[in-house]
């Protein structure tokens, strides 16, 4: 047995992949979360909990988090901090209270912490300027964990992830697949903007190495496909017609109209800028230190769909 892992977020998209992958590498995986099928039940967003009955843990993988939603009220905004920041603190404080000292703590973070909608090959040293509730809550968690790491002598690895792909992905990628499949997806302009993306199985597979080395790492598939490549590839796998094209000038007018309508609009200038801007991240640090050798997501489209 390689060791014992305590995993949070095992019911999430990435968490499910991690829970399935680590046993293949010889790890015993215990899960912690609020759903009844977890090994240990606890709500990270609420009060601290006792972990005395868990026993020794080699690696904690903290994949639980709140994402994929746009808050509109103070309560919805606070929920990001309750889960992503306060929940992280409660997990760590509960470990200390139970005298559980794992060798390593792996925190699943996000490239949203950089706070930029455009840019090429952004490195880990980039300013953490994310200003959304999701980004700010992850930044706070990262910063708190750095101090906790020093105080408790636990090796910390932070994995900053872009768009995560895998079988039947949620979020924007899932919406793209569905839209192309039913003929309702619209491709804007040349769709040449490139985006960093990473395969969930590759992230899960590198966790033991990251836990051993420690550090902060961007993880991508190293290719950074364009929207056009994804659109054409998905259409080919689904055996449907290529996505309908909308000239950028028309999309810009629709986005302007969305600005006037407000939150109910499916597209606005901010969303259009994100869709049509290249945003990629440099994973050379992971390649050098972790021997990160990811697969191209474009080569995984059949498994994804």
Secondary structure layout:
Elements: E1 3-8, H1 13-21, E2 27-33, E3 40-41, E4 59-62, H2 74-97, E5 104-110, E6 119-122, H3 133-152, E7 155-161, E8 163-165, H4 171-182, E9 186-188, E10 197-199, H5 200-213, E11 215-218, H6 227-238, E12 244-246, H7 248-261, H8 269-275, E13 279-281, H9 284-289, H10 301-304
Parallel strand pairs: 1-2, 1-4, 2-3, 4-5, 5-7, 6-13, 7-11, 8-10, 9-12
Helix pairs in contact: 1-5, 2-3, 4-6, 7-8
Task: Give a verbal description of the structure.
The chain is α/β, with parallel strands linked by helices and 305 residues long. It has a domain at 3-166 and 195-220 and 278-295: NAD(P)-binding Rossmann-like Domain (Rossmann fold, 3-Layer(aba) Sandwich). Helix content is 40%, strand content 18%. It is built from ten helices and 13 strands. A seven-stranded parallel beta sheet has the order 3-2-1-4-5-7-11, sandwiched between helices. It has a two-stranded parallel ribbon with strand order 6-13. Helix 1 links the parallel strand 1 and strand 2. Helix 1 crosses helix 5. The longest helix has 24 residues, at 74-97. The radius of gyration is 20 Å and the shape is globular. It starts with a strand and ends with a helix. The model has no long low-confidence stretch (mean pLDDT 93).
């Amino acid at each position: 047995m390689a060791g014992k892992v305590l995993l949070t977020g095992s019911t999430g998209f990435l968490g499910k992949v991690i829970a399935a992958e680590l046993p293949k590498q010889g790890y015993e995986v215990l899960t912690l979360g609020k759903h009844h099928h977890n090994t240990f039940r606890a709500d990270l967003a609420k009060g601290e909990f006792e972990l005395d009955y868990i026993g020794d843990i080699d690696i904690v993988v903290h994949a639980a988090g709140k994402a994929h939603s746009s808050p509109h009220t103070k309560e919805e905004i606070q929920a990001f901090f309750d889960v992503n920041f306060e929940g992280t603190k409660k997990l760590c404080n509960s470990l200390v209270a139970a005298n559980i000292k794992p060798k390593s703590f792996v925190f699943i973070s996000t490239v949203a912490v950089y706070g930029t909608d455009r840019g090429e090959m952004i490195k880990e040293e980039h300013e953490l300027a994310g200003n959304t509730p999701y980004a700010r809550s992850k930044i706070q968690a990262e910063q708190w964990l750095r101090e906790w790491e020093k105080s408790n002598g636990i090796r910390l690895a932070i994995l900053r992830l872009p768009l995560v792909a895998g079988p039947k992905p949620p979020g924007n990628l899932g919406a793209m697949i569905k839209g192309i499949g039913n003929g309702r997806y619209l491709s804007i302009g040349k769709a040449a903007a490139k985006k960093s993306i990473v395969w969930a199985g590759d992230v899960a597979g590198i966790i033991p190495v990251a836990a051993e080395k420690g550090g902060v790492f961007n993880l991508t598939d190293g290719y950074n496909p364009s929207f056009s490549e994804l659109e054409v590839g998905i259409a080919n796998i689904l055996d449907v017609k290529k996505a309908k094209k909308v000239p950028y000038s028309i999309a810009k007018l629709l986005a302007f109209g969305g600005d006037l309508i407000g939150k109910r609009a499916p597209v606005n200038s901010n969303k259009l800028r994100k869709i049509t801007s290249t945003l990629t991240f440099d994973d050379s640090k992971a390649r050098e230190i972790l021997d990160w050798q990811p697969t191209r997501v474009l080569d995984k489209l059949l498994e994804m769909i």
